[in-house]
């Protein structure tokens, strides 16, 4: 795997997109790629992502008439 070219990414984010340093460093790689015109901003969901989603929205039956 090749390393990120941080100086180029920082130039693109801060100079090209006008992001503040705090906003640049708060972005995920997927968000930065999306802002730079690459991809749709989503990463493929892996097992950990699916488990987190299932924990957040568990499949349970509601009691009552709902």
Question: Strands, helices and their partners?
Answer:
Elements (H helix, E strand, L loop, with lengths): L5 H11 L4 H6 L2 H7 L11 H10 L10
As residue ranges, the low-confidence spans are none
Helix content: 40-55%
SS-derived structural category: mainly alpha
Oligomer: single chain
Please compute the radius of gyration using only Cα atoms.
18 Å
Outline the biggest β-sheet.
none
Total of DSSP H or I helical runs spanning 4+ residues = 4
Percent of residues in β-strands: under 5%
Number of strands: 0
- SSE pattern: HHHH
Mean pLDDT score: 82
Please report the distance between the alpha carbons of the first and last residues: 51 Å
Shape: elongated
Describe the structure.
The protein has 66 residues and is mainly alpha-helical. It has a domain at 11-56. The protein is built from four helices and no strands. The chain has helices spanning 6-16, 21-26, 29-35, 47-56. The protein is elongated, with a radius of gyration of 18 Å. The relative contact order is 0.09.
Give keywords.
single chain; 66 residues; mainly alpha; 4 helices; 52% helix; elongated
Condensed summary:
By secondary structure, the protein is mainly α.
């Amino acid at each position: 795997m090749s390393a990120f070219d941080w100086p180029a990414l920082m130039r693109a984010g801060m100079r090209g997109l006008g992001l503040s340093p705090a906003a640049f460093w708060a972005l995920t790689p997927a968000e930065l790629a999306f802002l730079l015109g690459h991809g749709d901003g989503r990463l493929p969901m892996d097992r950990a992502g699916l488990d987190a989603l299932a924990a957040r929205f568990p499949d349970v039956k509601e009691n009552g008439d709902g």
